[in-house]
Write a structure and sequence with these properties.
With 283 residues, the chain is α+β, with helices and mostly antiparallel strands. It is built from ten helices and ten strands. The two termini are 20 Å apart.
Length: 283
């Protein structure tokens, strides 16, 4: 095998509770990760040397700092592999959108290069490597919609309805660090059990970051208000994307036809098994 083309799916945070702050600055949270059938695509071509190339580059991000390159380097370093790869990234997910695009790209690089280089690493080993790159990477490595706790790394797979979603990006990039450092961010939501959260369902789900993000980025609040006129809507992660859940694709199409200029939007279907795992035969 010399080439691979693999998806890097988006995620939504169907709920996000900040339950505390650790001494190391990380926040304790509870969240429900919903994988989507929409995302970026990565093209891999194996090299017989150790070079890692990535195109196109991301403006403002150094080549070696890109999560895809970092994932490849980490995999080389950990496994002792002397192979490399030429990687092309077809980017569809907005940066700073709360959809996990960078983390998903890193996970696809870990799984894709492990397959391309014939490395004997299982999902547990790859998820552990992913955690070194970011708290959201393991959920994409494991490839299941999941309930998450800790900093997002303690995962329990869940089965969610395969609803339709409209995801709206208001054209701003949210700085996650600024949100988590904001003094007004609520950090004391009482923890609940996964069973209770799933029993309560979407009407009770909320995102503790949403008030802070809307205050710091008024454009997010405007997008949220507009989308809420069609269906109950929520911020995903720390934003900037907002989303609503629908039962019919036709409802999603109707909303998309009304999105004004300056905003980007797409429809997607929720999935319990990642398109990446399906493509690799891991489903």
């Amino acid at each position: 095998m010399n080439e691979l083309v693999l998806p890097a799916p988006a995620k939504l945070n169907r709920l996000l509770h900040i339950t505390g702050r650790r001494d190391d600055g990380y926040h304790e949270l509870q969240t429900l990760f919903q994988l989507l059938d929409h995302g970026d695509t990565l093209h891999f071509r194996r090299r017989d040397d150790e070079r890692i190339s990535l195109s196109p580059g991301v403006p403002g991000v150094d080549h070696e700092a890109n999560l895809v390159v970092r994932a490849a380097r980490l995999l080389q370093r950990t496994s002792g592999c002397r192979l490399g790869a030429d990687i092309r990234l077809d980017k569809r997910l907005p940066m700073g959108g709360g959809l996990g695009g960078g983390s998903s790209n890193a996970a696809t690089a870990l799984l894709g290069l492990s397959r391309l280089w014939s490395l004997p690493l299982d999902l547990d080993a790859l998820a552990a490597l992913g955690l070194e790159l970011g708290a959201d990477v393991p959920v994409f490595v494991r490839g299941r919609s999941a309930w998450a706790e800790g900093i997002g790394e303690r995962l329990v797979p869940v089965a969610l309805d395969d609803d339709w979603f409209v995801v709206l990006h208001p054209g701003v990039e949210v700085a996650t660090a600024a949100v988590f450092q904001a003094p007004q961010l609520t950090r004391d939501t009482p923890p609940i059990s996964m069973a209770r959260a799933l029993q309560e369902g979407p009407p009770a789900w909320h995102n503790d970051c949403q008030p802070t993000v809307c205050r710091l980025y008024p454009a997010v609040g405007e997008a949220l208000g507009w989308l809420s006129d069609f269906a109950p809507s929520l911020l995903t992660g720390t934003g900037a994307c907002v989303f609503c859940r629908l039962t019919q694709e036709s409802e999603a199409d109707s909303i998309l036809s009304r999105v004004g200029t300056g905003w980007q939007a797409f429809k997607a279907r929720g999935c319990n098994t990642s398109p990446l795992h399906q493509a690799l035969g891991l489903a």
